[in-house]
Design brief:
Radius of gyration of chain B: 19 Å
Shape of chain B: globular
Number of strands of chain B: 10
Largest sheet of chain A: 2 strands, antiparallel
Number of strands of chain A: 2
Helix content of chain B: 25-40%
Helix content of chain A: 55-70%
Strand content of chain A: under 5%
Strand order of the largest sheet of chain A: 1-2
Order of helices and strands of chain A: HHHHHHHHEEHHHHHHH
Shape of chain A: globular
Strand order of the largest sheet of chain B: 6-7-8-3-9-10
CATH topology of chain B: Rossmann fold
Structural class of chain B: alpha/beta
CATH superfamily of chain B: P-loop containing nucleotide triphosphate hydrolases
Distance between the termini of chain B: 9 Å
Number of helices of chain B: 10
CATH class of chain A: Mainly Alpha
Oligomer: heterodimer
Distance between the termini of chain A: 37 Å
């Protein structure tokens, strides 16, 4: 025992029980704030339930039918999967602008390998997945080792991959019928089955399973905790003994791989394989789902379940407005409002600890 | 001392551009001792500690751990060699829980299929060990071991960082200002913990500006001045004002201390 200094003698009688405080001083708003802080997927879930309720009331039973609701799921499967990939990257305080075109080039590669070159379909899929992962690996190496900002790196690879896609494919579409005859396995995720009036595709199942799997990985494995730690405070993560470069590289590579998986799902949904899909704003849709889902763009905060809810919110809103016969621009406008609202709520929740 | 030092450094040099932070600095740490490192702001204490803990790579000089030369290129390598550091900025991830932070980079996985194949973390085991360590430190004002570190006060965060280093250090523990942000009670606990760790045979390097704390727990005091070791004194033979005089250059240290 060290020799206790005079003023410290009073400590001998100090309390040793775990601190406990009366809760009545906290207002309802504060408690909500705390709840949202500890449950990051709650906000998008509440918004999702609210938007379903609002459209349900205004449109009526037609909207509530299981057919409509499962149709929404079918429509968001691709964006949901890309959003999952985007979530991983954004959790590390990065951003991936290239996953949309990585998806398209992977689809083109899969299609060409299976249909044009006549390789076994399974091999074609593996080559496509490998191509997507390789693109992601390139992003990861540039971010981790060259220390370039993720925005710049992926802005660059976005253009590079898009151009490569058009040069390689000569912008030739592979027709639906050709895929069906020569490589039906590529259409796997387009197959559907009915449960009552609900129509589910394998693509929808794949999205949900993927998100649940990633949720498990992010919350219950060391790697997942490291992803959060790197996004939260990279310097602290490094000093705590996390190999931040390896984490970053694995995250970008996995994002590329998931984008390539989304390619397989997209072939099932679209039927044909069109290189010109590269000009579609899949990136922005995925980022939108992620942001509305409450993943903080500053990294380290949010739950991947939120991304799934975020994608569903966009799906519900666009389907609802469609059924109301509204101008499609209203959907765009509302999406913008949701994005700003989501980020504003994120900032408010963060203040809980200050 | 007749014992061999556990860690020695000779002729460490580190320059940042035109600024020389370490100027041919020597350093010795003996088994089972508490060595305090004191010095003015800008004397190069932090750089010396960073060189030992792997956070910076010295430009010149050698470091030997247990008689074997080592060159740490990162804190991870130093940690693997058994050198644990409590950084002044604590190196905690604010959004992660206390238990997650304590086990960051060395998580415990569940036994059997869940851990080996599904890589599932053993949260209950980690939370229990974290709770035990914190209780040992007397940080019972922490109510919930799974609460995020950002919801803790500054002192509580410090306690978590100290508990982490104490739990995992195997060769030596470096503490950079471990009591700077703590209240009276927590400071006392940390000082007691430092002595506890010493009793278990682990040597400690303590960097502190708090002279009473330094003189209370240290076995030897390394006085750092102008980027190098000025002298090493025994706290029992010198007063606090002597130490302050040496480190600010107000008084020249005795020949005997210089040789130490």
């Amino acid at each position: 025992m060290s020799q206790v200094q005079e003023f410290e003698k009073a400590l001998a009688n100090s309390e040793t029980s775990v601190a406990a405080f009366d809760e009545h001083g906290t207002s309802l708003v504060k408690r909500i704030q705390h709840f949202l802080h500890s449950t990051p997927a709650a906000v998008p879930l509440i918004v999702l339930v609210l938007s379903i309720a609002v459209f349900g009331v205004t449109i009526g039973g037609r909207f509530f039918s299981s057919y409509t609701l499962t149709l929404i799921l079918q429509q968001i499967a691709i964006v949901g999967i890309l959003g999952a990939a985007q979530t991983l990257v954004i959790l590390t305080a990065g951003i991936d602008l290239s996953i949309g075109v990585i998806m398209v080039i992977s689809a083109v590669i899969m299609g060409n390998c299976a249909v044009t070159y006549g390789l076994p379909t399974l091999l074609a899929v593996v080559i496509g997945l490998a191509a997507g992962a390789a693109c992601g690996l390139l992003n990861g190496l540039l971010v981790a080792y060259m220390k370039l900002p993720p925005f710049i790196v992926t802005l660059g690879t976005w253009n590079i991959v898009m151009a490569t896609n058009f040069i390689y494919s000569a912008n030739e579409t592979i027709r639906d019928a050709d895929v069906d005859v020569q490589a039906p396995l590529l259409h796997l995720f387009g197959l559907n089955f009915k449960v009552g009036t609900a129509v589910l595709t394998f693509g929808v199942i794949a999205m949900v399973v993927l998100v649940l799997f990633l949720w498990y990985v992010l919350n219950h494995t060391a790697w997942g905790r490291h992803v959060y730690a790197v996004g939260d405070d990279p310097e602290a993560a490094k000093l705590s003994g996390i190999q931040t470069k390896k984490v970053l590289i694995s995250v970008y590579t996995l994002a590329g791989l998931i984008a390539a998986f989304a390619a397989w799902v997209s072939i099932g949904r679209n039927g044909s394989i069109s290189p010109s899909a590269a000009v579609t704003d899949y990136n922005l849709q995925a980022i939108t789902a992620t942001v509305i889902g409450g993943i903080s763009l500053f990294g380290g905060r949010g739950s991947i379940l939120g991304t799934l809810f975020g994608a569903m919110i966009v799906g519900v809103v666009s389907m609802g407005l469609n059924m109301l016969g509204a101008d499609p621009q209203w959907k765009v406008l509302l999406t913008g409002v949701l994005i700003i609202g989501a980020v504003a709520i994120d900032q408010w929740i963060r203040k809980v600890s200050v | 001392m007749t014992q061999e030092p556990i860690l020695t450094a000779r002729g460490l040099v580190k320059r940042y551009g035109r600024v020389t932070a370490l100027n041919s600095c020597d350093f010795d740490l003996y088994p089972g001792e508490i060595l305090a490192v004191i010095g003015d702001n800008g004397a190069g204490k932090s750089t010396l500690i960073k060189a030992i803990s792997g956070a910076v790579v010295p430009d010149e000089g050698i470091i030997e751990l247990d008689g074997k030369q080592v060159l740490f290129k990162s804190p991870i390598e130093a940690r693997e060699a058994g050198i644990e550091t409590v950084y002044q900025n604590l190196a905690l991830s604010p959004a992660l829980s206390i238990a997650d932070n304590m086990f960051l980079g060395r998580e415990i996985r569940k036994p059997g299929f869940l851990g080996d194949w599904l890589r599932m973390l053993d949260r209950p085991a980690m939370e229990k060990r974290a709770r035990d360590k914190l209780t040992e430190l007397g940080l019972m004002t922490i109510q919930n071991i799974s609460q995020a570190v950002e919801t803790l006060s500054g002192g509580q965060r410090q306690g978590v960082a100290v508990a982490r280093a104490a739990a995992f250090g195997s060769k030596m523990v470096i503490m950079d200002e471990p009591t700077a942000a703590l209240g009276v009670k927590e400071s006392r606990r940390v000082l007691e913990l430092i002595l506890d760790v010493k009793k278990r045979g682990l040597p400690i390097v303590l960097i502190s500006h708090n002279m009473p704390h330094v003189f209370e727990v240290a076995d030897r005091i390394h006085i750092h001045r102008l980027g190098r070791r000025l002298c090493v004194i025994d706290p029992k033979q010198y007063t606090m004002s002597d130490a302050v005089a040496f480190m600010t250059g107000a008084k020249l240290p005795p020949e005997a201390a210089l040789a130490a």
